[in-house]
């Protein structure tokens, strides 16, 4: 078969790119290695920047988000078991939306189904051919070989996908920081600890109190990335979380059985350029940020937005967006990476910190509490820099 754009990866960035291009009359196919059920079972963060919210609304994807999502006008930052609020809306006029990535993906699937979009699941052995000339993609499905000829290939297949690996090593540059800890996360059917997120710096390590809805909470604590999960019974997790949260929050915390528990590694990673000939990198295929500050999904959306604008302009006769896609996307990627690195460094305890490093972080949090200018910088980055 032949399409104008072959999209590898059926996560949020691939589905969103396909949806936007379809609305502009550009034919796409999405190839996803996993089943739809597997994609929808992934537990991911769900704090959407205002620009992401506006993008979803602009393309007819915001109805359920606006009904079921939770607008947040600020967040809490804590140290030494006491906290304070940073008011995003008061400082910037913008808010964020708490709406799970799984829900965004579900809405995107519904939109692609309604439009008759071509999404192939369980596409095995996907391979990219001749990205520098006349591109095509091959894959196996139900034991048969398939070929997709196309004008462009969009690699939306994540950090471990094939797209980035297709770019020659003498072209691709990568920068990486692997953090010496992970996030132990628990999902529970309990009332959230607060109406807004709480980020806590503590001598025992970082903690985050988050939520999915009014009866579904998501909590994280900093832990060794190689800790066995069976070490962390529910009782052990709740006890440790209480130690790290502000005292008033810990005393009122509702606990219950975990319905999901996992440890995720943290890294900062950027690959550049994000375009090589007829191949584009989008989302996690090109960059990973630690979840502190919730930038991963939002960067995937901004990449898809930039690339869709570039491709729509290309088919209208203007290639400036195609030529500038990588630089445009990377400018936002690096700023978001900086913010995620700063916030991760500030809120976590590192092995090399020592007493001096720990006190410096506490002093910076004290300064943040008392400085409107510092809070404004944080708020501007948290709600999302302009596209």
Please tell me about this protein's structure.
The structure is a single chain. The protein has 387 residues and is an alpha+beta fold. The chain folds into two domains: 225 residues, FAD/NAD(P)-binding domain (3-Layer(bba) Sandwich), CATH 3.50.50.60; 124 residues, D-Amino Acid Oxidase, subunit A, domain 2 (D-Amino Acid Oxidase, Chain A, domain 2). 39% of the residues lie in helices and 28% in strands. It is built from 13 helices and 20 strands. The chain has an eight-stranded mixed sheet with strand order 6-5-14-15-16-13-17-20. The protein has a six-stranded mixed sheet with strand order 8-2-1-12-19-18, covered by helices on one side. α1 runs parallel beside α6. The two termini are 35 Å apart.
List the helices and strands and how they pair.
Elements: E1 5-8, H1 12-23, E2 28-31, H2 36-41, E3 47-48, H3 50-58, H4 63-68, E4 70-72, E5 74-79, E6 82-87, H5 88-92, E7 96-98, H6 101-114, E8 118-120, E9 124-129, E10 136-141, E11 144-149, E12 152-155, H7 163-166, E13 173-188, E14 198-201, E15 207-213, E16 216-223, H8 234-244, H9 247-252, E17 258-272, E18 275-276, E19 279-281, E20 287-288, H10 296-315, H11 320-347, H12 354-370, H13 372-383
Helix pairs in contact: 1-6, 1-10, 10-11, 12-13
């Amino acid at each position: 078969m032949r399409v104008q754009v072959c999209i590898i990866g059926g996560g949020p960035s691939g589905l969103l790119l396909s949806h936007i291009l379809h609305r502009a009359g550009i034919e796409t196919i999405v190839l996803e290695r996993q089943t739809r059920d597997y994609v929808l079972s992934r537990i991911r963060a769900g704090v959407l920047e205002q620009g992401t919210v506006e993008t979803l609304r602009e393309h007819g994807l915001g109805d359920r988000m606006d009904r079921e999502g939770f607008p947040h006008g600020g967040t809490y930052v804590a140290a030494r078991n006491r906290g304070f609020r940073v008011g995003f809306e008061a400082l910037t006029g913008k808010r964020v939306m708490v709406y799970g990535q799984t829900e965004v993906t579900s809405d995107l699937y519904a939109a692609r189904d309604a439009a008759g979009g071509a999404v192939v699941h369980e596409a095995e052995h996907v391979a990219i051919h001749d990205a520098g000339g006349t591109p095509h993609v091959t894959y196996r499905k139900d034991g048969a070989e398939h070929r997709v000829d196309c004008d462009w290939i969009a690699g939306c297949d994540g950090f471990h996908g094939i797209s980035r690996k297709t770019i020659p090593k003498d072209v691709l540059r990568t920068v990486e920081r692997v953090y010496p800890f992970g996030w132990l996360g628990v999902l529970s059917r309990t009332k959230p600890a607060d109406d807004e997120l709480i980020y806590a710096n503590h001598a025992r390590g970082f903690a985050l109190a988050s939520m999915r809805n009014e009866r579904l909470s998501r909590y994280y604590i900093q832990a060794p990335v190689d800790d066995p999960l069976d070490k962390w019974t529910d009782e052990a997790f709740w006890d440790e979380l209480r130690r790290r949260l502000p005292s008033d929050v810990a005393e009122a915390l509702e606990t219950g059985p975990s319905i999901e528990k996992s440890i995720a590694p943290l890294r900062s990673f950027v690959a550049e350029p994000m375009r090589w000939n007829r191949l584009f990198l989008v989302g996690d295929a090109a960059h990973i940020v630690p979840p502190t500050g919730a930038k991963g999904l939002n960067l995937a959306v901004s990449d898809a937005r930039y690339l869709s604008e570039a491709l729509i302009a290309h088919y209208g006769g203007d290639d400036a967006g195609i030529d500038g896609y990588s630089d445009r996307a990377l400018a936002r990627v690096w700023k978001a990476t900086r913010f995620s690195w700063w916030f991760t460094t500030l809120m976590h305890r590192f092995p090399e910190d020592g007493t001096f490093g720990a006190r410096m972080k506490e002093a910076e949090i004290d300064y943040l509490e008392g400085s409107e200018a510092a809070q404004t910088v944080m708020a501007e980055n948290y709600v999302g820099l302009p596209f």
